[in-house]
């Protein structure tokens, strides 16, 4: 942020046209940053047209041309990543290799004051079904999916330069909000009268609304006390899957009924969709790697550390976040 006569801060954002990245970029502009956005396609980033946003078409698998952009940045937000893939190796290419390339760019071109904020995932630590959830003091991270393993390995690469540059890692829980494609099928099914649940168990989860996650990202990025650390980010509460689906139904279709699908049926669907993905070479929302996460007893994590050390406080309740998400989905023709 700038004051009169002060230098305008410049941010470099990977994955700027995605769900979390777009919401982050909009908030950076509100805070008077100038932003360079690395996007895979400028056509899909038209919503980011702004005088203080520079769109860079490309990816971190071919990083040679990005040195000058890294050099002028005061802070780098690494949001880009691969969340679904046809083959396990693609998770490591999209998460680990790209992070390694970015870190190499930073060590070669970045000014010494530059900070790197890496958006990882609770998947890097693995599941937890008991409150208050997994936290930063847990002795071992045990990711259960290739996605989680690739994010964990990418975290190690980020921390490898912690003695040269300020870095911070955030592990969000399940994120929801406007522009989220991941949970859109659940909202859409509910609009047609069906609330989908996998398995006959409570399935406790931690959640974070995207605006609160963006606030946590910027708080970590601008606070020296965060340097060299890893933080989980949630709204501080735990929810059952039924609670989440009922909150969605309340704002879309109160008459929707809960359809509980046996885990055996979900497993079959994941295998079939995985095969379909391999035959078409197009990643599917359901696949064998996603099954490794779905079959767990719960996904809880604790945000106590970021609350105590950085003073983070969520502003959004589940109900208000769902309400705004539904309004955006409808306005955008997603429902």
Automatic annotation (TrEMBL):
It comes from the Bacteria. This is Nucleoside-diphosphate-sugar epimerase. GO terms for cellular component: cytoplasm. The lineage of its organism: Bacteria, Pseudomonadati, Thermodesulfobacteriota, Desulfobulbia, Desulfobulbales. Residues 12-228 form the NAD-dependent epimerase/dehydratase domain. It holds the Pfam family Epimerase. InterPro entries: Epimerase_deHydtase, NAD(P)-bd_dom_sf, NAD(P)-dependent_oxidoreduct. It comes from Desulfocapsa sulfexigens (strain DSM 10523 / SB164P1). One of its GO terms (molecular function) is aldehyde dehydrogenase (NAD+) activity.
């Amino acid at each position: 942020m700038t004051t009169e006569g002060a230098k305008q801060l410049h941010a470099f954002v990977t994955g700027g046209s995605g769900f979390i990245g777009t919401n982050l970029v909009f908030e950076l502009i509100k805070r008077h940053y100038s932003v360079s956005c690395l996007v895979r396609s400028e056509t899909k980033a038209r919503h980011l047209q702004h005088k203080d946003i520079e769109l860079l078409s490309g990816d971190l698998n071919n990083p040679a041309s990005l040195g000058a952009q890294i050099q002028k940045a005061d802070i780098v937000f690494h949001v880009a990543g691969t969340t679904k893939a046809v083959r396990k190796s693609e998770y490591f290419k999209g998460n680990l290799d790209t992070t390694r390339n970015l870190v190499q760019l930073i060590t070669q071109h970045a000014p010494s004051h530059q900070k790197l904020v890496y958006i990882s995932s609770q998947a890097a630590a693995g599941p937890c079904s008991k409150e208050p959830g997994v936290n930063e003091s847990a002795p071992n991270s045990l990711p259960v999916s290739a996605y989680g393993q690739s994010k964990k390995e990418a975290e190690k690469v980020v921390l490898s330069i912690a003695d040269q540059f300020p870095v911070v890692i955030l592990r969000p829980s399940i994120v929801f909000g406007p522009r989220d494609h991941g949970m859109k099928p659940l909202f859409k099914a509910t609009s047609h009268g069906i609330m989908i649940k996998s398995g006959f168990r409570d399935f406790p989860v931690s959640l974070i609304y995207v605006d609160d996650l963006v606030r946590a990202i910027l708080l970590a990025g601008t606070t020296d006390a965060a340097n060299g650390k890893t933080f989980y980010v949630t709204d501080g509460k735990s929810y059952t899957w039924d609670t989440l689906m009922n909150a969605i139904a309340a704002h879309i279709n109160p008459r929707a009924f809960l359809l509980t699908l046996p885990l055996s049926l979900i497993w079959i669907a994941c295998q079939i969709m995985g095969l379909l993905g391999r035959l078409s070479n197009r990643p599917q929302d359901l696949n064998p790697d996603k099954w490794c996460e779905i079959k767990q007893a719960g996904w809880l994590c604790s945000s106590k550390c970021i609350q105590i050390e950085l003073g983070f406080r969520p502003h959004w309740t589940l109900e208000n976040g769902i309400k705004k998400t539904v309004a955006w989905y409808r306005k955008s023709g997603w429902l």
